[in-house]
Amino acid sequence: MSSHARSPQSRTPSDDLDQVAELGQQFRVDAIRMSTAAGSGHPTSSLSAAELLAVLAARHLRYDWQHPSNPGNDHLVMSKGHASPLLYAMFKAAGVVSDYELMTTYRRIGSPWEGHPTPALPWVDVATGSLGQGLPDAVGIALAGMHLEKAPYRVWVLCGDSELAEGSMWEALDKAAYFRLRNLTVLVDVNRLGMRGPTELEWDLPAYARRVAAFGCRHLEVDGHDVAAIDAALQEAVDLDQPTVLLAKTRKGHGFTGFEDAEGWHGKVLPPDIAEQAIAELGGPRELSLPRSLPAACPPAPPHPNRPVTLPEYPAGSRIATRTAFGDTLASLGSALPRLVVVDGEVGNSTHADAFAAMHPERYFDVFTAEQQMVATAIGLSVRGFIPFAATFGAFLTRAHDFIRMAAVSRANIRLVGTHAGVEVGPDGASQMALEDLAMMRAVHGSTVLYPSDATSTSYLVQAMAERSGVVYLRATRGAYPVLYEPGEPFPIGGAKLLRSSSHDQVTLIGAGVTTHSCLEAAQLLETEGIVARVIDLYSVKPIDSKTLQDAAEATHGRLVVAEDHHPEGGLGDAVLAALNSTSTTARVEHLAVRVRPGSGSPPELIDEVGLGARHIVAASHRLLGGGS
Amino acid sequence: MSSHARSPQSRTPSDDLDQVAELGQQFRVDAIRMSTAAGSGHPTSSLSAAELLAVLAARHLRYDWQHPSNPGNDHLVMSKGHASPLLYAMFKAAGVVSDYELMTTYRRIGSPWEGHPTPALPWVDVATGSLGQGLPDAVGIALAGMHLEKAPYRVWVLCGDSELAEGSMWEALDKAAYFRLRNLTVLVDVNRLGMRGPTELEWDLPAYARRVAAFGCRHLEVDGHDVAAIDAALQEAVDLDQPTVLLAKTRKGHGFTGFEDAEGWHGKVLPPDIAEQAIAELGGPRELSLPRSLPAACPPAPPHPNRPVTLPEYPAGSRIATRTAFGDTLASLGSALPRLVVVDGEVGNSTHADAFAAMHPERYFDVFTAEQQMVATAIGLSVRGFIPFAATFGAFLTRAHDFIRMAAVSRANIRLVGTHAGVEVGPDGASQMALEDLAMMRAVHGSTVLYPSDATSTSYLVQAMAERSGVVYLRATRGAYPVLYEPGEPFPIGGAKLLRSSSHDQVTLIGAGVTTHSCLEAAQLLETEGIVARVIDLYSVKPIDSKTLQDAAEATHGRLVVAEDHHPEGGLGDAVLAALNSTSTTARVEHLAVRVRPGSGSPPELIDEVGLGARHIVAASHRLLGGGS
């Protein structure tokens, strides 16, 4: 008998499988009542999985409902987030929400009982609703339990069949097998119908089974409305030494003949009179509660006090790539912060994340070239309170945009690092150049966007990232550039640095990352012409240092040049204009950005070709000063 | 014998397989010479696939090298784009580029011989270099040949093994099988080594084979350095009635003992002296040419002249959702434009793309919930000159961001429609709300971004999209709002509409989509206070009508309110500020946007809660007018 078996003492009421079936019917009734009361929702998608969730909740899920933060609790991820009425019906049976609250606030303004579950509810770990994300996130949670915490909690995921069309699900199953996550059980509600009509594979369970097996996971096939079969399968899954996928054949809308297995009912609610019929057909409301369940005793986390951080130091003037400083710092931080974990997308030797791998291999996970799973793993690690960093080329973070967007809805604390930013990449060409990442990352709710120019500031900011909540992004450069700052210089998030300033500055040059160096060079050139330029290193793109920008605009008569190695939209230029506008500062900004489709070339050639060289900044300054160019 | 078999007459020189092996050696030598001359590149990744490409090019690829636009040409997609030296070595053997040009311009500034191939070269269909995209794009090309053109061309894809970790590859193989693309042959160069080190599956060809089979494609396993075996396998692939994946076991860097099957050599070039040794070991340079090859005769496209377009008409004042107008218009356009094709992500009943499906089922392809493949299919259709539209919820287009970014590098002409924009989605909550899409789409090079407010303008703009090149995006709203414009009103891309204006306007209210209606309502409220407001419907977000914005700013003393149902960064507000800055217009913009993490609620409640209601626009106007709020 596996250590995961139920304790009969604590579960007596549910030992009667008929009662579990009744619980499933109760979930159905409540899902219909809830969605009809709200006037929107997905009752049919809830009804198909009622037995799956009833058996799981009553007989296998070990969860201390009054203490959702109990570290021994199992995790239940509702990957098919649109079946929120089902999940919430289960929460009601768990006694954490009243029937009244659900019937009056589901999907209403201000309610945590949202249309798709989010961690606004303490029993929800990650937001779902964009298909194909719950399972990938769950892989991250299971990875933490299996390989970092060595804790006994299990991770259960309820998926829809439609979402198995998302490639991200196969990245997830592949990694579940690769990391041998035997603590992960995936229940797939194969109800045959998607939103428009039949799914691609309908009820071809053997086809799904072949895919699951080929990706290295175990599979079990059951009738998803047979509580005894589900119960046996879940027990078998727990006993198996591999991640397991339970393929459950179900009928969408099962339990009400009015819409069972019928097309055209996705996301549609029953009008009140029909809902009444359906509830009658289902035997009316019930008031069953989940049996009391106890989480597995979670061993206390071993004492891993944070140690003082010793950051790497770089002598001013030496040439170091910011990606190198990122890797060095990550490795140092890893020694100080035992909960820091790194996720790689098979490019650690280029992002330099592998400097961490060399020192802390047990906290380094390479998911190979699967950027969606890379970000999802970080989200899952965040659920368990780790401090995840995930790094790849900035260009390839676009692959995970939907996951990054949802990380913000999930209140996840993840740190993303995108190296090889901009045309500075050089000969590899456009496919490798992040030219859209600042726009992507700025628009994420609650995000922080950092873009250091040198190794010293990178080191400071990487440390600051570890303490920052939300989605935190650092953009790093491929090439080596001079260290601009002395060790120990602070770089508060939301700040900016004046690299050159005087009481008689005539124009302000604003850069970040590689363009800071162009701005400094331009200021020197301007100086030879007798023009005094202020230079701002805008290392914190979001939040932005509006005060420093405002002061500079006022000091230099509104003459600002912004240079950024990014397409013109959504990046540094837009951020500066928004900051100036918010402070009611009048300025004229010469905005230099990548306005072409770049090709290959050496970094200096490309920077010059796209108009980000010192000479272009000088010419822009001349335009502002009225001297032509 | 299949109709695809070679014609011996045209291929005589290559009937000698020893010569094909020699050609492979030539490719190796040239790949080393080219990358060493450039000082960067991926020789080892090129060498592993030399026989694969030599056999394909010499004996199976039917291509009129002097006429790359010949519609009968086969398509060769280099999914492992970093092996560009190998591809270019083949182009040299095809006689379309001189050795001198490659040795002096590969990866150099201004050269079309970029680090990763792009359609800057007429023999390249799509840009590659972001792993996991070439095969998905190729599925779109093959789909066109198989189901739209019924043309005899074949589509060949050369993939790396690392990229099989990307979920997008499995979306692609799944769809290759689903659409029965027997004209597609995928060659996988299983060289065991990725960038950091060994791949997840290394040389476990049976594991790959199980996955390929489970996803519905045929697989063949060969020694990737055995030209006879490759030749037989490719012939078998052509004869098979299914999409076929050739799993070729290879050795990275094969042919030079100095780096063959060695770690630490990814993306590294040989210094000149070692390159000389390697070339000697490979038997020195050769001057072999590809045999002349003739494309299959492509039947002339049947006469399908465009017919006049009859757009749907909507009476002003009636309430119609813009997504409904999108679907109606798409259906009408489909009758007029025989090359218009629609790709759906299993949400056509909600985006209303299925209005097209009902009328033109033969030009409608549902790839199910696989947004990466949805966009890739559109890119592939664009390669064959079709007019693809792809539609899903705007939020879920973020799933395909990397593909959209690369579509611009590919010079693809694709039209994307994202419905259910913003908090206007209502009770479904944040996961379904596009709040980052404008930032994403604006930052794409050469993109067009449209956001109509009513059915009439939507209809006009959808028609305009069909004629527009590049990546063209239209953002649509879930709910039904009043039709603002009379049928026949033109909406040029790059324009804006003054919905209210006079010679004594005091403040300008700028909206797009749903906020246009808030602005109109606010203007009415302001009017009751004796304040005259100008209202701009900024339906064209990129390009933007700077002149109309400038005129409005000047007319209303720089007082502008911008309201957008999007996060504050990268969207309408940033676009307006950039436009004003570019025209040196001084203005003070009150920027109303979604600055919270929204939950559920009714659309009007949410619009009010996030501060986009008429009362918020009125208050913002008061702030600008100095009257407080």
Overview of the molecule:
2 copies of one chain form a homodimer. In chain A, helix 20 (514-528) links the parallel strand 15 (507-511) and strand 16. Chain A is of the alpha/beta class. Chain A is elongated, with a radius of gyration of 28 Å. Chains A and B meet through helix 8, helix 9, helix 13, helix 15 and helix 17 of A and helix 8, helix 9, helix 13, helix 15 and helix 17 of B.
Question: How would you describe this structure in keywords?
Answer:
14% strand; Rossmann fold; alpha/beta; homodimer; thiamine pyrophosphate binding (chains A, B); seven-stranded mixed β-sheet; elongated; 629 residues; calcium (chains A, B); disordered N terminus; transferase (chains A, B); five-stranded parallel β-sheet
Percent of residues in helices of chain A comes to 25-40%
Task: Give the tally of β-strands of chain A.
Answer: 19
Number of domains of chain A: 3
Task: Give the CATH architecture of the largest domain in chain A.
Answer: 3-Layer(aba) Sandwich
- Share of residues in strands of chain A: 5-15%
Q: What coarse outline of chain A follows from CA principal-axis ratios?
A: elongated
The CATH superfamily of the largest domain in chain A is known as: Thiamin diphosphate (ThDP)-binding fold, Pyr/PP domains
Within the largest sheet of chain A, what's the order of strands? 8-7-9-10-12-11-17
* End-to-end separation of chain A: 82 Å
Instruction: From the alpha carbons, calculate the radius of gyration of chain A and give it in angstroms.
Output: 28 Å
Q: Which spans of chain A of ≥5 residues are poorly predicted at pLDDT below 50?
A: 1-13
What name does the CATH topology of the largest domain in chain A carry? Rossmann fold
Total helices of chain A: the number is 24
Largest interface, and how many residues on either side? A-B, 115 and 116 residues
Could you describe the largest sheet of chain A, including whether it forms a barrel?
Answer: 7 strands, mixed
Q: Provide the structure class of chain A.
A: alpha/beta
Assigned CATH class of the largest domain in chain A: Alpha Beta
Task: Tell me, rounded to a whole number, the average pLDDT of chain A.
Answer: 95
Enzyme class (chains A, B): transferase
Domain Transketolase-like pyrimidine-binding (chains A, B): 320-483
Subunit structure (chains A, B): Homodimer.
GO molecular function (chains A, B): magnesium ion binding; thiamine pyrophosphate binding; transketolase activity
